[in-house]
Structures are given as C-alpha cells and as structure tokens.
Design goal:
The protein is about 35% helix and about 15% strand. The protein has 13 helices and ten strands. Helix 3 (about 60-70) links the parallel strand 4 and strand 5 (about 75-80).
C-alpha cells in the first residue's frame, strides 16, 4: 500500500481507501457478513482509512465499521459526515446542540472516543458562506470529539468557499474522468492551502467500469434506479449527472484506457491517483472481489502526458455539454 498525507495534517492515509455508502444502503441488496469480510480484506492489504456517514443505512455502515475496526482504533482512521438527518437548509441543523448530538450519536455507533475526520455532508452554499457551523466544529475539536473536520461538497464553487477557512482539513469531491472540472482551480488551490482531497464516486456510479449499457437495470433501493435524474438528491451523485444512456455511451468510448492496466476500473482509479493533489480515492464496494480489484489500481501504469491530454480533450468536447446540474 502507498500512503499520502492528508493535506498538511499529521495523518497519513492509504491512497486507495474505501467509502461505505454501498454497504450501508442505497446501492441494492447487501450482506453484512460479506461486507465485513471485505472490510477485513482491505485492512489486511494496508487500507487504514474509511469514509462513511450517519445516514448510510441509518447508521448501519458506522456500526459495521465499529465491528470491523475493533481493537484497531489507533491505526485505522474513520471519516464520517453529518447534517442530512435534519433539514440541510435550516440553520438549526448546524447549531451546537444539533451538531453535538449528531457527533455523539456517530461516536456511539462507531464505538470510538474521537472521529478522525468529521465532515459536513453536502450543505447548501448559504450555510458555508455564513460559516457559523465552522465555529461549532472548532469547539468540538477543542473538546477532543473530532480530530479534524472537512466538508463534502457538490460544486467547485462550494469547495473554493470552504478553502477560505484554514481549519478545513479536507474537501471531499466528485472527481473522475467524466468530472474533471476540479483539476482546473480547486485541486491547485487545495494543495496551496494544505487541504486534503478525498475523491468520491471515482467510477461515476459504476459507469467507468465499462460494464453498463443503456439497458442495465438496478434494484428498487439502488440510487441508480431512484435518483438517475436527481429525484432524491443532487443529480451529480448518480452517473456523474450524465444519466445511464449517455453515460454508458461515453464510457464505451473509453475502453482504450484499460490497455496494459487490466480493466477500466483500475485505469479510472489510476487516472485520479495521477493527480498528486489527491490524498486518497474512496471507491465503494460490496464484496471482497471488488476490494481486491480496486486495490490493483496502485500497481497499474500511470497515464502518460499524451493520454492525459487526450482524456481532457474528450471531457471538454464529448462530456461537458451533457452533464446536468451545477458542478
């Protein structure tokens, strides 16, 4: 395993880490025994960082992490998120009373005394500009309930606002071959500020595995079924905002990235890791096989300068006009 520093903080994390949205819920059926086997496999391979949220399965993914990391609390780091159990547009959701309650609930489910990275879970821009929530997080940090805090954002503009606060240790962003905009301003600015970058949805909800077609179907409780057009939350969280039909069509044009890299999954993750501003990429998983495949991204060849330019040209000329929603 290779490790990278979280911005300029004293936290070194595995460059391929894992997100636990899928094992908590909203990605179809799950099996807790298999989820736990996959978590243990990841740790056996050197993964020391996992991302979760209090709303993933109503806290179920936090509970699974507590079981899997028992006795490893000092060596395996956990990031979790808050605010989506409340009204994200209501300032009361970000009050000291509310955030303390969210934090203590997560600590209990995680069976930990401190959360390594506590993140605001995709709040609206007006909350970020107001900034009161950051004072709340400063207080929780002083109390030792959280080690560092950060923000999971939907847009580059939101990320740039967060970077004005020097205590924001990390930004969690959507960044992949279909969503390259952060590379223009956000990544360089984050590096300049010493802010870590966590990359979620690196495979664009599975599009960049190359396994889907316009006819692919998903289970009823899978967000790729119920949020393709942004019916439940930000459209960019599902298929990079492209939709299944257009997204699978575009992915088919990227088959070449798998040459000498095993498959498209490994190649797509490698492309992200080739951006040195990135602290870690956090693909999802539901079984051991997916964990093993994702971890192979560490070993495949990096993209050449010419390949990077080709992919940026593809993004600018074939992808951008089809992305829905603000990003």
């Amino acid at each position: 395993m290779n490790y990278r520093q979280l911005g300029n903080r004293d936290l070194n994390i595995s460059e391929v880490s894992f997100g636990t949205w899928a094992i908590g819920g909203s990605w179809g059926s799950t099996n807790d025994d298999e989820s736990l086997r996959a978590l243990h496999k990841a740790m056996d391979e050197g993964v020391n960082f996992f991302d979760t949220a209090d709303v993933y399965g109503g806290g179920h993914s936090e509970e699974l992490l507590a079981k899997a990391t028992k006795g490893k609390e000092d060596s395996v780091h956990i990031a979790t998120k808050f605010c989506r159990f409340g009204d994200i547009h209501d300032s009361k959701t970000y009050s000291m009373e509310s955030v303390r309650n969210y934090c203590e609930t997560s600590l209990k489910k995680l069976n930990r005394e401190t959360i390594d990275l506590y993140q605001i879970h995709c709040p609206p821009m007006d909350i970020l500009k107001d900034g009161s929530v950051f004072e709340v997080l400063n207080k929780l940090q002083e109390e030792g309930k959280i080690r560092y805090y950060g923000v999971s954002v939907e847009t580059v503009a939101e990320g740039l606002v967060c970077l004005k606060n020097p205590n924001v240790a990390a930004l969690q962003i959507i960044f992949n071959i279909f969503r390259q905009k952060p590379a223009e301003q956000l990544l360089p600015k984050a590096k300049e500020n010493g802010t870590g970058i966590l990359v979620r949805l690196p495979l664009a909800s599975g599009l960049l595995t190359g396994k889907f077609t316009a006819q692919s179907t998903f289970e009823k409780d899978d967000h790729r079924n119920f949020n393709e057009h942004g019916e439940q939350f930000n459209v960019g969280e599902t298929f990079a905002g492209l939709g299944l039909s257009k997204g699978s069509e575009l992915a088919n044009q990227l088959k070449w990235i798998a040459e000498d890299r095993g498959n498209m999954t490994r190649a797509a993750l490698r492309w992200i890791l080739d951006h040195k501003e990135v602290s870690c990429v956090i693909p999802g998983f539901k079984n051991v096989k997916q964990v093993e495949d994702n971890l192979q991204a560490i070993h495949v060849p990096s993209f050449t300068k010419e390949e990077m330019e080709k992919l940026n040209y593809f993004y600018q000329n074939e992808v951008v006009d089809h992305i829905r929603g603000v990003y």
